[in-house]
Design goal:
9-stranded antiparallel sheet; about 375 residues; 11 helices; alpha+beta; homodimer; 5-stranded parallel sheet
């Protein structure tokens, strides 16, 4: 008998940030008992998780002991102690996605090699052990400017990445094992979230187009549907499906693409979990990415990914110069605009560019959703009431 | 400064059934700190409420002490100790809807008098102090068969109501202060949920049409949009708005109407809270009834009530003859049908006709939603794995 059908399924989630929180909001609809592991007892998910366990995702014992409490284990972040996951798996725990996927994705070098070896188009690259090796390669003309350096491990939200346009910028190079890749001349950036269950059923969410805040190197606005041509859209969906199948994984895989100036699709990177580029699905797609993640990891039939309504998503980032207890300026005013759906993650301290929430604007046309989003961006500011 | 905009608002909810649970799911999106009072620590809302307080909604001290913990107090049930609420209000607590509304609604006699005195059409009625008074009235030919008897206080989900078709059925009469009203010959039953904030802004959700399970006297299927003519629909919305304004209340008011065989609208009863007839709004209306309740009680602008998609809602009732730990037969199979949204409330014990969850089916047409709902009803059964 399926445990979920008896209201007795214990789902463990490693880390309790906003992704974990929104996953729990969906899980509670099916009366799944949620366990959350996080080092911070004030993390967004702590308040609504059935059980909160304090502990670090990096710590072997914390992850191992947490896994012993649950029937099935998943994660909302790539940075998890994989050795503990492997040990739990060897003892029979159902971990989805599988630890081997996490291990691959944690290392951007392995990730790039996997793309290359499986016919997934990606920017050409080389691996380096340390900064000095890159200097040597530059001196020997084995590296062409401009290029992008990415640390193989530990990067997140734009950290661990350096863009080196010319010799004068080499002091920006980061220390540690890294890859460098040619700097793609980007026409647009899109993301597609693929879902797959253990039966091998695969579905893609509609592509979203990303607009960046250049100061913070964070996505600021995500638009769905994207402006991809039907042909490129089909190609991107086929690539996302191919990638999740090649990884032989169950769960969600968020695949970020560049479209270069020649109209070529290039996979930038991917993440085996719910993703910032899928928040809008809560309101604008028949099945949200969070519900789909639960369906996928529990080997249930995947839900429809048909678009209900065009949407524009804005990340609510902390305003520059504000650092302290959060205050959401313009909150009421934004609620007066039809189709504005505000999500506050529950981080009590605002910091410059910290992701504090998001707003999804749904409307009958993308044009009107974008206009409403402009208004929201001009009104809603994440500040602090103590400076 | 608004407390909600600082992530520091403590919202108290009296009772933690499914309505409280779904209210908390919405509240968590705005990082509202939720406190739940319920006599049962395994109630549906307990697991996701920020703070759970064990205590009875009927108990003066429990309600009073609970009110002292929060910034604003609301309820998901009419049966609350009003004396405690009045005391809290006199000490300055913000209670929404106001205790005077609850006091009126708790007493179906007062409720009916209010309709009559405020020009709201309702079935003609008389008040009685006890069963004996009704017998006397019958003997004196002051009462005509068939009629409906409703206990003035304590009824819920069809309990506290007796339908007396002829003299041979008078042994079904209930003891206690009651009203009797003429039995309306019902053509259809509809419900409209009105919302109002303290600024006086009022909005109605689209009318839903109710189909009953005759065995259990519980709503089994709710269809939106209803089959009301545009004229009757406008009239029903105008009546719901008039009623919430006459009550001078903030919050939600669910108004249940009969349409009689002459096409006349008759208000049956109303409830000042989220309502079973509004569950579908989570998926099928721009603003859900739960978000709207929060907007209304916090005096925020009301959200759009435009219909996104036709919907059919099914209440998941415990199957007859099953009493024990719950098992949801057909759960996976139903998830394979596009547009099927399952909500399990988290009641661990199934009992015959107990409301255990609901399913909202959204589809592009009502016809196709109804067909999918037929399939869900044939597949999904609330049983128990121990008999």
């Amino acid at each position: 008998m399926e445990k979920i059908a008896t209201s007795n399924l214990k789902l463990g989630i490693i880390c309790g940030g906003q992704l974990g929180k929104m996953l729990i909001q969906e899980a509670s609809k099916w009366d799944i008992i949620t366990y959350t592991l996080d080092a911070d007892e004030n993390c967004p998910a702590a308040g609504i998780s059935s059980v909160f366990v304090k502990g670090s995702n990096f710590d072997y014992d914390a992850v191992y002991n947490f896994g012993k409490l649950v029937d099935i284990l998943t994660f909302e972040i790539e940075h998890v102690n994989v050795e503990a996951l492997k040990k739990l798996k060897s003892e029979g725990l159902n971990i989805v996605p599988d630890p081997h996927v996490l291990e691959l994705i944690q290392d951007k070098g392995l990730q790039k090699c996997f793309y290359r070896d499986n016919g997934i188009p990606t920017a050409s690259f080389d691996l380096f052990g340390c900064k000095k090796d890159i200097f040597n390669a530059i001196n020997e003309n084995r590296v062409k400017f401009p290029f992008v350096q990415k640390l193989r491990k530990g990067g997140f939200d734009g950290r661990g990445v350096a863009v080196i346009n010319n010799l004068g910028e080499v002091d920006k190079l980061l220390e540690g094992p890294s890859l460098i890749e040619e700097k793609v001349v980007i026409e647009k950036e899109i993301a597609i979230i693929a879902a797959r269950n253990q039966k091998g059923e695969t579905k893609c969410f509609p592509a979203v187009e990303m607009v960046f805040n250049e100061h913070a190197n964070l996505v600021e606005r995500l638009v769905c549907p994207s402006s991809l041509t039907p042909e490129l859209n089909s190609e991107a969906e086929a690539l996302a499906s191919k990638l999740i199948e090649s990884l032989d994984m169950a769960g969600l895989l968020a695949v970020e693409f560049f479209v270069d100036v020649n109209g070529q699709l290039i996979v930038n990177e991917s993440a085996p979990r719910p993703h910032n580029s899928g928040h809008h699905t809560i309101e604008s797609v028949t099945t949200s990415q969070y519900e789909q993640h639960i369906r996928a990891i529990l080997n249930l039939p995947l839900g429809s990914t048909s678009l209900i309504s065009p949407s524009v998503l804005i990340n609510l980032l902390g305003e520059p110069f504000f650092d302290g207890p959060v205050f959401y300026e313009g909150f009421s005013e934004c609620l007066a605009i039809d189709g504005v759906k505000i999500h506050l993650y529950g981080k009590k301290i605002a910091r410059p560019y910290r992701k504090m929430g998001h707003v999804t604007v749904i409307s009958q046309s993308l044009e009107s959703a974008n206009k409403k989003a402009d208004k929201v961006m001009s009104l809603l500011k994440v500040k602090s009431w103590k400076n």
